[in-house]
């Protein structure tokens, strides 16, 4: 039996695998919606659902396994061409995916009850209706199945490997799975391999075997599927209901240690072997059985996935350890510079190069393709378009662009807001589009690409664009700006991100409360990102999000002010210049002139209320975020470093304009600056937005 820790490990693995499989299901269904004849998509969908059912059955999650079994049966009909892939079937399959995910979620919270039994019953009835319609059609057409089912008693002989328990399997789980195919008519426990001496007994080893009589109508593949996960390591023999006495005799020859036990079990089941026929047919039957098993094992090995599943926690631990290595290597390099040892400097340069490679490799492990998140929007667009009674097509570009998994997980909600906002506010109704000379079907384009060490994500539509005049009226009505205030068009566009400002005519399930776009801005800035607007009135709008590739380890620019070290993410830095002599360093912020253009600045020592002890010339670090630029006044520039961002403790999380901290090679603490927060501090007009 499994202890609680082993069971939890198995359950956690099942939950992680199921989440990935359900995501694959939605991808396949999106493909089927675009191309109902895609055999690759229906096969991939069937495999994913079948794997969920098999894993649930082995873990004894009967609620999940029973429902998914009915779901799988309908998909098998579609896979075999017995029912067409229609919009109705795709819609039902999507709802089944939702319900499967909901059941798996409650299983993960130690709840075995169906979270929505009414919906479960409705879906089961719909699945049964599909099967019933197919059965009636098959009865009329009398078409043979690809592999004939056999009604009767199957005989299954199992000999488990010794490491079965160590690999997280329970022999009883296979019996429970077989019970879904039919009735386990009889069972014989084989314990002949148990050690006779206590000293030779390993309590963690499995010495058991089983002889099973299964009364079911099934195909050979269906019975074999019960043992997908152990086929390569276990000894498995399956005899169909029409097996001959010679087949049973051959079985006895491959289980010599338990021959008498098995023979007695067969006799009890009414199977008496004919020794004369057995001697004549034994060789032929044994060879056929061996070929069948060999072919099956080869097939399993061919299909075996080369990917290795790793817990996200383990990856996070690895990234943290690599981060500590980066800090230690930086400290050693600083020490070598102080010692002025050329030989040591050369060695540490090599070490630095290897650490850089390790860092890049470790971060690459957490990179996932944007297609993982983009694929979910096929359904979002379809359901939202139906609710809005609009015709909208989703186009995906740059799906192979990679981003840190931790960012992807936190990016989904902001993207959903932006896509729905574009569909609700941007895309016109079919009649309006036709009147404007546009096709009735609108377009939403999701695109991702790398640019200057960052990832850019675009949400583009071909709708009406942002109505600047309407935004201005709403902002004036809400008291955000004065009626006669002269603002640039870009500043007016960014008013859409202000909380409480919405141009929607009425409140709906999708928009109108003025909270969605404000939430988007906050979520993006929390990821050290920015969002820009490219508005084309009458032709559409593009929301452009810029994000760092990872949040864990960054390239930074080290500066100091009043003896305190600060790290500025290199991606934000555009240039460094000497501060002009006329600049009043006693001011917290203000404006200066750079190349005959005004530029706002922040004096870091004043901004953070640090004592001013510097007497020499200061420097300016110019940073920008989209269309916003500012200069940071610092005492000294220390150059580029690799740094590990660590979250601040609870006592310091309230600090404004600080994104985290890091440990320098010298052991000193440096604060990582929140550039978006600092940029907001220097603008008299607060960044405001609407939905």
Report a brief summary of the structure.
45% of the residues lie in helices and 21% in strands.
Describe this structure in words.
The strands form five sheets. A five-stranded mixed sheet has the order 6-8-9-11-10. It is flat and about 110 Å long. The protein is an alpha+beta fold and 691 residues long. The protein has 21 helices and 21 strands. It is 45% helix and 21% strand. Mean pLDDT is 80; it is low at 140-146, 275-306 and 684-691.
Keywords:
five-stranded mixed β-sheet, 45% helix, alpha+beta, Four Helix Bundle (Hemerythrin (Met), subunit A), 5 domains, 21 helices, single chain, disordered C terminus, Alpha-Beta Plaits, 691 residues
Low-confidence regions: 140-146, 275-306, 684-691
Instruction: Determine the mean pLDDT.
Output: 80
Gross CATH architecture of the largest domain: 2-Layer Sandwich
Based on secondary structure, the structural category is: alpha+beta
| Approximate helicity band | 40-55%
Which CATH top level class of the largest domain fits?
A: Alpha Beta
Provide the gyration radius in Å: 33 Å
Distance between the termini: 56 Å
How many structural domains can be distinguished in the coordinates? Answer: 5
Strand order of the largest sheet: 6-8-9-11-10
- CATH-assigned homologous superfamily of the largest domain: Histidine kinase-like ATPase, C-terminal domain
Q: Please, how many helices?
A: 21
Shape: flat
